[in-house]
Every structure is written in structure tokens, then in C-alpha cells.
Amino acid sequence: QVQLVESGGGLVQPGGSLRLSCAASESIFSFNVMYWYRQAPGKQRELVAAIGSGGSTNYADSVKGRFTISRENTKNAVYLQMNSLKPEDTAAYYCKAVRIRDLKTHDYWGQGTQVTVSS
Fold first, then answer.
1. Are the C-beta atoms of 52 and 69 separated by less than 8 Å?
2. Could you give the CA distance from residue 115 to residue 14 in angstroms, rounded to a whole number?
3. Which residue in 5, 46, 70, 75 has a CA-CA distance of 20 to 30 Å to 26?
4. How many whole angstroms separate alpha carbon 15 and alpha carbon 61?
5. pLDDT by residue (tens digit) across 23-59?
């Protein structure tokens, strides 16, 4: 069973930075796309950023220019560099991996890491 483990969350002041990590239990080459999602209290989980196996990236409008998703294949890891953090970025952040095999889509989620932006 695929395991994804997020880390790097914490409390940061507005304008600060954090880097989240997502470590996979197997080669991330086996996943078609990897994502970062977030969920604030009382709100639906929303897509933050995505990175394809070829390195292409996409971002939610709310984080464009502030967040950067990247991958390090040798470490089976995906990162989310978050700069210029705002209080509205406060949420639990989740890593998701998607594998498409034999015309079936398999989704794998991590347990999440909390990010709190507050002065």
C-alpha cells in the first residue's frame, strides 16, 4: 500500500515562509500526477498545486506567484514552498498521488500537516 507522509507544517507569521514535504513510500515516477490540497475549518478541501511526472505544474489562482511545487525524484518527495503567507492560507495541507493503470485511477492521500498563519 502506498504511503504518503507530509511534514513541515507549523505556525508562521504573515509574510513568512514554510516548505512542506511529502515523502512517498515508493518511486514517485509511478504516479502520473502529485498534488497539494488544503482544507480550512468549515470549508471544502481545495486544490493548491499539481505537478506531473514530466514536471509540468499548475496552481490555484489564490497561490500563484507565492507557492512553488517541486519534486525530487531521487528522494521520492514532493515539496510545496510557500512564501508571503497570509492568514487565509491557514489550513491542513494534504499530499495526494494519482496513478492511472489499466484504465483505472488510484488515489492516495497523506494524513496532512497543519499550517497556521497568525501574528
1. no
2. 12
3. 46
4. 18
5. 999 999 889 999 999 999 999 999 999 999 999 999 9
